[in-house]
Structures
1.
Amino acid sequence: MDDPRVEAIRQLAEPILEQEQAELVELSVRRAGNQVTIKLLIDAVGGVTISRCTKINRQLGDALEVAALIPESYPIEVSSPGLDRPLSSRRDYERAIGEDLELQLTETAPGPKQLSRMLLAVQDQAIVPTTRSGNVTVPLDAIRLARKAIHF
């Protein structure tokens, strides 16, 4: 069960993230014994640096102290979700426009079930990647898994 303080922490974090031009991907509050751990995964255009994570961590820590939401000891972990995280929201896809994606499509989707192509556009209920034969519209509900392609 989710900790009921998550929403209050989210409300404290959102203005800090907006000021730092970052976006909250995931927020969790976990208890292990007598200690609570607050974990934020953030993303930003151009990526997330260690200094950005540190700055957000300090600002959120200060805000939590003032709000006195958590009486016990709590570390705060702020990090990037990583390069290979699945894309799940429309905003994730919008940030990936112009980048290569690896797509795994559902069995019911027509055509190939795996694509590795550049994303050209995001529509209301679909994305538009390039293919060898031209651009194709892929409904969001036909995507089983989407990630940014990592090139070495």
2.
Amino acid sequence: MGQECCLSFQRRCKQALNLRMFVTVSLNELSLFAGSFWNYVNDKKVFLFFGDMGVGKTTIIEALCAAKGVKDRMGSPTYSIINEYSFDENGAEKIIYHIDLYRLKDEEEIIQAGVEDCIYSDAICFIEWPQKAPNLYDEKAVDVSIEVVDATHRSIKINLLPLSMKEQS
């Protein structure tokens, strides 16, 4: 990937009021997107991934994990509910939880599965289908909405607004 592609990608990652980012990403730009994502979200820990079935939530999460240096085999936690990955940050082992709530029935079952423990563990948490437990997250959670543009491009909206402001926007 050449310098021109990187500059084009960076221009498309315009931030609005430093609270939202909208970007269209091609599948071959996911590693560039992942680096920009981590720079943009700073120290945020909980990320709520919204999007239709098959939109690429897991694929994007895998790119974000790879950008953090995860070496573990990654995949969808649809059946395991929670996948745990480790990475090294400044000589310390850190954890990422990749959580898929799709198969769980309600908030009680989600809590019994240990999801709440993950969310409040201070580890990075990526949560697919977060609308299954809307009362589980605090205002620090970051919304990541993904839509299909075409076969090789996705539109991604990242919203850093506090929960109370998200409801008004």
